[in-house]
Amino acid sequence: MIGQTQEQQLREGLAALGLALDAATVTRLLAYLALLLKWNKTYSLTAITEPERMVSHHLLDSLAALTPIAGAQPRRLLDVGSGGGQPGIPFAIVRPDWHLTLLDSNHKKTTFLRQAVIELGLPNVQVVCDRVENVSGEPFDLITSRAFADLGDFVRLTRQLLAPKGQWAALKGVQPFEEIAALPADIASRIQALAVPGLGAERCIVWMEPRA
């Protein structure tokens, strides 16, 4: 993919994922990368700043999980430890019908997220700067995270925020068998492998839900 523009790389990756997005959505996804790169100079949001790697690591890595998560038919989603906005911002751009809350306790990161929401025009996104254990309110159909904590802590800290019949979807790299083995006995789990175009690394979703 060296020598390709970010748009060419993104369009090829979207095709590989089976995602048919219009030109305006593609433009908005690339605008998000530009914002991430711009703010990273001051706020240290990501270590990956090479243009050819940003598409695969920040956009396609998130969007590879979009179709599986859409299958759960969520209405309200919580992205815990959202950091620079993955997967929450790409999800919000592609699925304006979803209502997403992006949660992070880091003030600099949530400042960036709020600005991204404004500049990208994402009325379906709420940004919260707080620790997850302090959050309350209407529960969520689906709670996701990309790099927040191990699975046991993820479930323990967010359990009060999960709606009845809701699910957790943790985006992970190598399949975390030890973390799954350490989950509470009343949590059912399954692993769904993901193929991320251009990434060259293992990715998966660990689905979890309370046993009936």
TrEMBL record:
The gene is rsmG. PANTHER family: S-ADENOSYL-L-METHIONINE-DEPENDENT METHYLTRANSFERASES SUPERFAMILY PROTEIN. The chain crosses the membrane at residues 14-37. GO terms for cellular component: cytosol. InterPro entries: rRNA_ssu_MeTfrase_G (IPR003682), SAM-dependent_MTases_sf (IPR029063). It is found in: Cytoplasm. This is Ribosomal RNA small subunit methyltransferase G. The keyword Nuclease does not apply. Belongs to the methyltransferase superfamily. RNA methyltransferase RsmG family. The keyword NAD does not apply. It catalyses: guanosine(527) in 16S rRNA + S-adenosyl-L-methionine = N(7)-methylguanosine(527) in 16S rRNA + S-adenosyl-L-homocysteine. Specifically methylates the N7 position of guanine in position 527 of 16S rRNA. S-adenosyl-L-methionine binds at residues 81, 86, 132-133, 146.
